Amino acid sequence: MPIELNHTIVHARDPAASAHWLADLLGRPAPVRLGPFHAVALDNRVTLDFIEAGPQLTVEHYAFLVDDAAFDAIFGRIQARGLAYWADPAHRQPGRINHHDGGRGVYWDDPDGHVLEIITRPYASAG
């Protein structure tokens, strides 16, 4: 059996709201409630399982590989909602996207400060 990532836990102040926010922004089905989790399913059978954060929330980074059509749709929703976005994870290039490896990429923050990213080409894929 190959080894595949199945799920990861995302800590959030309001897990239901955060899961719905991300699912809507990415154009995914509504999250599914599984015990204390609100699971957002991705196309590769991986879920992001949102759970209530403890007193100290650790900010994480989540990157999503998408095709050009999905990039356009997601980036359009980012812009339509007036969300701040950057071409880099350090937030030094505001209002821009990047073109690494011949693709496109953009970063933005979720309501809990997690740094989210969509890219159309995996890093180091240009050869």
UniProtKB/TrEMBL annotation:
Q: Pfam families of this UniProt entry?
A: Glyoxalase
What SUPFAM superfamilies does UniProt report for this protein, alphabetically?
Answer: Glyoxalase/Bleomycin resistance protein/Dihydroxybiphenyl dioxygenase (SSF54593)
InterPro entries on file: Glyas_Bleomycin-R_OHBP_Dase, Glyas_Fos-R_dOase_dom, VOC_core
- Give coiled-coil spans as residue ranges: none
- What species does this protein belong to? Piscinibacter koreensis
Q: What is the designated name of this protein?
A: VOC family protein
Q: Which PROSITE patterns match?
A: VOC (PS51819)
Which segments constitute the VOC domain?
Answer: 4-121
